Structures are given as C-alpha cells and as structure tokens.
Amino acid sequence: MTDTEKTAGENGEKWILRLYVAGQTPKSLAAFASIKRICEEHLAGRYEIEVIDLLEHPQLARGDQIFAVPTLVRKLPPPLRKIIGDLSNTEKVLVGLDVQPSR
Amino acid sequence: IELPKSPTGIRGLDEITLGGLPRGRTSLVVGKAGSGKTLLGMEFLVHGALDFGEPGVFISFEETPGDLVENVASLGYDLNDLQERNLLAIDHVEVSRSDIIETGEFDLEALFIRLNYAIDSIGAKRIVLDTIESLFSGIANTGILRAELRRLFFWLKDKGVTAVVTGESGGTTMTRHGLEEYISDCVILLDHRVDDQISTRRLRVVKYRGSVHGTNEYPFLIDEDGISVLPITSTGLS
C-alpha cells in the first residue's frame, strides 16, 4: 500500500519515507499508524510513505541494510536516516527524521 | 553412537575433532582480531562447497564482500566463481549505530529473513556468521538483542544448517558479549601470541558436546594454503 501525496509542501521539499515490516504484526501496524499521524501533522502534503513487507520481498532487505523490524528509512531529503522500533515515541521520531514540528 | 559430523576440510582440524564440526548444530569460534577466525569460517564454507557438496552462506557483519574475496584470493579460492556457481552466497549486514535511532519495540526478523533468503537461494547446508557481536555495537537495547540471538540459534538448528559463529575474545568472559552462553555444542578457541618475536598460533577445542576430541592446545599455521592444524599437541612440542 503506498500512501502518496501529489502536491509538494510550502517549501516544496518532498519527504520520501520507507517503512520496512515483516507481515501485519502489531508492532508494524503500530509503527505505520504512528508515522502516518506524525506526517499528517508535520509534513502534510509533502510526504510519501512506502511500506515494504519483507515477507513478500525478502531480497529488498539488503538495499537499505535492514536487520530489524519495523525500520523507518528517510530516503529524502538526504542524508539517509533510520529509525528502528514501533515509532511510539513521537519526539524521538521527529528528532530521528529531523523534522521541525509545524506548530 | 557418535554424533554426525560435518567435515571442515581444514588440515588437522578434522583429525582432532574426529570428523569435523557437529552437523546441523552451531559451533562458536572465538579469537581476537587477526586470530584466523574469519578464515576458518570461510575455509569451512569453501571446502564444504568444493569437497563435500554442501553450498554455504557467509554473513559478514564487518568485512565487505570485496574484502572477503580479496583476502582469500591469495589462497587460491575464487569466491566470485563460487557465487556464480551458486555454491556460495555472501551477505554483508552493516550495523553502524551512527545513523540509527531506536524508539519502542522491535525485533530482528529482517535478519532472519535475510539469512533464510540466502540459505534457500542456493540450498545451503552451511552458514557462517562472522562476528555477530557487531550487533552489540549497533543495537542499544541489549535486552531485545539477547532474546533475538537466543531465538536465532534455535532457528539455525530448525533450519538444519551447520553453523559457525565467530566471536571476539572477551576480558573476563570467553567472548566479549558472552555468546558462549547461547552456544553449547562446540566451542573452539583461537589464540595468537608473539613471545620474543616468535609468533605462535594455537587452537583449542574448549567444548564439544557428545564427542571425544583432543582437549589439548594444538599449534596451527596460516600459509598460502590456508589453515593447517598440526596434530602434535603443543605440550608435546616443548
């Protein structure tokens, strides 16, 4: 499932995030819900979250050097950043993604 | 009855272990950097593939595939050729904490998926995890890490592969992060000492469950043919 937002945000910087999961486990579902809420709140209109299920695409784990699940990878803007875990701590996710809170 | 064994093809090692490593089980090879543990693991796979018809997987947590290929080329092993012939698969798992933040619960299922994918892609019967302790430098939550390592060693047994896990020698404990608690079937210690300019390498089978084995320390060499363990006990030498 890809959740794409067509229009770029105010300063046009498009965020590309990739969430690696392994099946629909509670941790993975919680991680997706968290990142979706955070992006809606702080990156509305300029983010894209791609979910990759490693059970279906095992060979994709190597590309972004994934060893833990869930792992969120910020592909854009550079530099590449990774957050491991169910993303339950919003502040840590914001710091990890280097997102300036919009409010 | 004697435990089924997986011959290593390493000169002298199969003699002192009376046949090789415990088949379908996990063995731990411990040593400091430069003690020869990566080479021992790689030879176990190369001989497995070339001499015993058992393809192998090398999971490297430190050296890049390029380094691995280069380091053994001088021994006459062509790892690229082995990979092309699906006799060997190499996966480099990079675990650098610098760009990773942890928040909340996670597990290492992605690592399991990578190992499983590499094993199944070539029908591997052998696997080497070269210095899995690097995970400790990459993951802060050691509670989760230790639980997942325990799960991993059970998983390897279920998968029916003969595994070699390498570990760094520790100060107080045998390995820096106490891997010896998880691996009880076979433990081999590699030592490399330099006493008044004479460099001696020694190998000792510290533990080998269910099998008779030479418990002494055996000198070994690393030369252009790789590792050769000299069956004369080092005590017999002095």
From TrEMBL, chain A:
Record domain KaiB: where: 18-99
Alphabetized SMART domains for the sequence: KaiB
Organism the protein comes from: Methanoculleus sediminis
Protein name from the UniProt record: KaiB domain-containing protein
Lineage of origin: Archaea, Methanobacteriati, Methanobacteriota, Stenosarchaea group, Methanomicrobia
Name of one Pfam family that matches: KaiB
UniProt-listed Gene3D superfamilies: Glutaredoxin (3.40.30.10)
A single BP term in Gene Ontology: rhythmic process
SUPFAM superfamilies the UniProt entry points to: Thioredoxin-like (SSF52833)
